[in-house]
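Why run this: before we spend reagent on co-expression, it is cheaper to look at a predicted model of the complex and decide which construct boundaries make sense. The entries below are exactly what would go into the expression plan.
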Amino acid sequence: MSAEATAVIENKTGIHARPASVFVQKASSFKSKIQIKAKGKSVDAKSILMIMSMGLVKGTEVTLVADGPDEAQAVQELKALIDSKFGEE
Amino acid sequence: MAEKMKGKGVIAGVAVGKIMLAGQNLDGYLKDYKSKKKADEKKIAADALVTVAAKLVKTIDDLNKKDMKEQAAILEAHRMMVEDPAMSAAIDEQVDKSGSAPRAVLDAYESQAQIFEQMEDEYFRGRAVDMRDVGKRIAKYILGIKEPEIGEGKVIVAGQEIEPSVIAGLPSDKIAGVILGQGSTTSHAIIIAKTRAIPSIVGVGDAIEKIADGDPVIIDGETGEILIRPSDEERAAYDIKIKKQEELKAHYAQLRALPAVTSDGIKVVLACNIGSPADVDAAKDYGAEGVGLFRSEFVFMGKTDIPKEEDQFKEYKAAVEKCAGHLCVIRTMDIGGDKPLPYIQVGTEENPFLGYRAIRISLQRRDLFMPQLKAILRAGKFGKAGIMFPMVINVAEFKAAQALVEEAKVELVHEGKEYGDVQLGIMVETPAAAVMTPVLAKYVDFFSIGTNDLVQYTLAVDRGNAQISYLYNHFNPAVLRLIKRTIESANKEGKWAGMCGEMASDPNAAILLMAMGIKELSMSAPSIPKVKERIRNISSTKAKEILDKVMEMEDGDEIKKYLATIG
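The model came back. Tokens follow.
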């Protein structure tokens, strides 16, 4: 079993250092294994380096896949975080 | 006998201390490292990550307690790079290849750094340095290389290149001196050392590799001489020099409260250049009367987003208040492609110093400029403040900036925030502005001559290029003519002209500038006493005579030589 959701990066500067660090801190608070998929790649959502090196600019569609005890909640909260534009414009 | 070395002395003073190496070369340690089985090496690396991360957490806490938020944020990013799950996998992979934990760590971070370096985005490219720094930190821990301890006695920090944060992070009373293999007077590490009057030598070259950690040394920041492991006799000879230095310091301390006024009563304001509000406190000890240049870049550096008006306001307000009635001139953001920031996308430029930077960015980026203008205007309520625009080349730019200041005031009124009367001026640092000062003087409240760039742009000489540095001379007649023109233009329109470049701290230059009619000289605080002493020991008539003679001379080196004889 695993949970899955898609989201589109909407904040102007994309997943830059600050949003990436917020995202990783959130992802790390879950026990589940979480992957973030985009542009045909799939990386560990708990790795700031992997996420930053994907170059997620505004308009990129990403898929979140979680596998573990809190998978549904993880996917839901991380999607909400992306949808909130990380509190940016 | 001591082993001797020579570099270029850039901050005068004799210092004695033990060497603390920064920017160490790990090759020797790596060769001597005895690796065990691969599984053990993986365990060693994994444990090192945990320990280094824990140490970072402690340092970050300490920094936050001391309110050093910027340095804390940088280390927080480092911590995430240490704990990143991708790195532990990458390190394991490298252990399989090299069989050595420290080498695997270095290689793993190096390959990540290279990925960053190839990225489009300048911000990420800049992070490559951090990746290497983190890798080195972990490798050093595994190799058992102690982080430099500064408990007992003073240290002299040495390295090929030293990160400005290394010097900024050490307490002033622990650093006796600085030695750089590379670098120049205008390296950031040296600029910081200067505000603290730390004797410094640059340009030692590869000879610096011969200096070992913990070596006792004597350095002379005036002559550029370095004595490694000095004998007792040599030590004694320098003790005399140090004693003289102390006497001079005491003498300068007596000058602190006296004004910088010539024997016939002409006064010049001696102000200081600062990078943060805290610098004002140290500057007062040298008798600074206000701030002639607050480099606001420090407010912008190391941030991932545009600094908020409220945060900027706090910094500016603190500086204005500390000036206690004297003027505090705040220069608006002076950043370009040479120091990319995540929220200022300059793109790759062949020539960042002739590119999209400073006022050119500010005028196009309202989102960036407005919060800064509003913050300074509000700080003006708490004392006397001035706004200075950098890199201006024509009247239109000043007028556009002035219009935005008016808009900022309107916004503040709407927001119900109070603001003060603030002077508006420009930094005269391009030949174009200097030539146009007769016109610009009609609009501005003041000029501040930025000689570092003015000399560089006028003479087409890169000040960092050692091969042509002999051409870099603020006494070059072309430069002197532009300066004279600027000062006279201001005085003619009833405005004031000051100077905030390197030249302002040269006592010989001070004589000429005073004779030209300059009203203020702003410099790194430790230079104030020697400039003040020179001004107090001359009459304005004598200074005018010297100026007349100098303006007739045809060559910059001739002028330099002549001025050296009149001291």
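Chain B has a mean pLDDT of 89. The radius of gyration of chain B is 25 Å. Bring this page to Monday's planning discussion.
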